[in-house]
Amino acid sequence: MKRQSFLLIFFISSIFVSFAQNELSGYYYSKSGTYIEIKDNMFKLIMPNNAINGWYSNIMAEGIIKQVSPSFIELNTDKDFMIKAIKNIEINQQVDSVFTDSIKVRFLIPYQRGKLKISISTNNFRTFELDYLDNNKELNIPSDVKSISFYISPDYIQAHTSEGLFYGTVGFDSMIEYQVEDYANVVEIKISSLNDSFFETYHIKGDYAQIVNDSIIWKGEVYKKSK
């Protein structure tokens, strides 16, 4: 009897969640022009007119939406782009006979929106800085370095809201210490994921938004459902 009651409650709860999510489906617009598109259990946060706003991509976030109560929903991006970027790093090490007194570290990054600040940390607790641009992609470090890690951040961050709030990514940490091979004096680091939209994209983990009548209130902004 208890098992039957449990299954009945579970079945009713599933129907409620499914019905509630279908009721949520639609387009929700804020006064700023940003809008949320919900279809079943998926959502997209879209900021149009990017040529004017200065954003590279109009989709600022997309992921999974879950109704946790009649008044609240939980939002999560369905992909961890930071982990993906780390996994996609390509390291190529080689020998250049032209110089022997240092190690050349060269970065290949598709980001084109301005300067990137790259901080390289070594196994002997030294730090080297590179202002990465199209014409400045490499620097030399001492030949006794055995491993490196790095942190990359954009020189300029554009706020997502008129109040100056920024919801994107302020920096990229390699999280790994890469070994420099004994034979190598050139280390080439290719990070294909760091494109023009990488730092501006929202990474949402367990954000809660409130449902009030036909509106969604998220991060202090009201998104009203289009009729």
Structural class: mainly beta
Low-confidence stretches: 4-21
Q: What is the element string, with H for helices and E for strands?
A: HEEEHEEHEEEEEEEEEEEE
Query: Helicity level, as a percent range?
Result: 10-25%
List the defining traits of the structure above.
227 residues; five-stranded antiparallel β-sheet; 3 helices; elongated; Immunoglobulin-like; eight-stranded antiparallel β-barrel; mainly beta
Could you explain the architecture of this structure?
- It is a single chain.
- With about 230 residues, the protein is mainly beta.
- It has 2 domains: about 1-80 and about 205-225, Lipocalin (Beta Barrel); about 80-190, Immunoglobulin-like (Sandwich).
- It has helices spanning about 1-25, 50-55, 80-85; strands at about 25-30, 35-40, 40-45, 60-70, 70-75, 90-95, 100-110, 115-120, 125-130, 140, 145-155, 170-175, 180, 185-190, 205-210, 215-220, 220-225.
- The protein is elongated, with a radius of gyration of 23 Å.
Kindly summarize this structure in a few lines.
The protein is mostly beta strands.
Describe the secondary-structure layout.
Elements: H1 2-24, E1 26-29, E2 35-39, E3 42-46, H2 50-53, E4 59-69, E5 72-77, H3 81-87, E6 90-94, E7 102-108, E8 116-122, E9 127-132, E10 138-142, E11 147-154, E12 172-173, E13 178-179, E14 186-190, E15 207-212, E16 215-218, E17 221-225
Parallel strand pairs: 7-14
Antiparallel strand pairs: 1-2, 1-17, 2-3, 3-4, 4-5, 5-15, 6-14, 7-10, 8-9, 8-11, 11-12, 11-13, 15-16, 16-17
